[in-house]
Specification:
Length: 249
């Protein structure tokens, strides 16, 4: 590829990845292969991807400002829990090879997708109340989601949305807004850790990051146009696709 073609290729991947992350999560499976296709080593591509997609998560939160109103306490409490999980996940990635964890990733994403599919029934069985603080179960899920997302970003949004949908009795769009906020928190922890200790390719970040910001904002607009049932179906289908791709890696 010529330099201009590479820039256009990375910008397109960043735009699409940011939109998918805002809509469902899993944009990593678009931008990460794009970096690999340009010849970057896998570890460098992974940490570069994590840093480059951070603006996309920010764009998602900005796009969900209306849905986040009235959820400040819930979002702050769960963000602290997700941050602790992300710290643990970042340390796990930087300090250990994690081959066993890699083998579990497809199963985790598939489980999250099927849990989201069963969300209406699970909400009736375990559902929380808008007027009460988040239960210990949703905090446990937020911690594990943060750990998973920092270690391997692919499918993080699917996992978080499934957990939140199980235990928060609320409209799916409002729950998805909280998911976007937690994803931003987890991504922020990863950015700090990988910027300090990982082999980030900053020239690629300079192209993918602004594109993912625009994609994240546009993805929230697209999600808002869908009914909760359609949005759930899209996320489940995408999540199962993510699991299949990861299983074939």
């Amino acid at each position: 590829m010529s330099p201009l073609t590479e820039i256009a290729f990375l910008a397109g991947a960043g735009l699409l990845a940011g939109a998918v992350n805002a809509l469902a999560g899993g944009g990593t499976l678009i931008s990460f292969p794009a970096l690999l296709a340009l010849g970057q080593p896998s570890i460098s591509a992974s940490v570069t991807n994590a840093v480059a997609l951070w603006p996309g998560y920010l764009g998602g939160v900005l796009g969900y400002r209306a849905e986040l109103r009235g959820q400040r306490r819930r979002t702050v409490l769960l963000s602290v829990t997700a941050m602790l999980g992300a710290i643990a996940g970042s340390a796990l990635l930087l300090l250990t090879p994690g081959k066993l964890f890699d083998s579990l990733v497809p199963w985790l994403v598939a489980f999250a997708s099927l849990a989201l599919l069963a969300q209406p029934w699970l909400r009736k069985r375990f559902g929380g109340d808008d007027d009460r603080p988040p239960s210990r179960w949703v905090h446990a899920g937020a911690f594990l989601g943060g750990c998973y997302g920092a270690y391997f970003n692919g499918g993080m949004g699917v996992l978080l949305l499934a957990v939140l949908g199980m235990f928060l009795h609320d409209n799916l769009h409002r729950v998805n807004a909280v998911r976007a906020a937690l994803s931003l928190v987890v991504s922020s922890v990863s950015v700090v850790a990988f910027s300090l200790f990982g082999p980030v390719r900053w020239e690629a970040v300079a192209v993918v990051a602004p594109a993912s910001l625009v994609g994240g904002f546009l993805g929230t607009r697209l999600a808002r146009l869908m009914s909760p049932a359609v949005l759930r179906g899209v996320v489940v289908a995408f999540g199962l696709g993510v699991a299949a791709v990861l299983a074939l890696r």
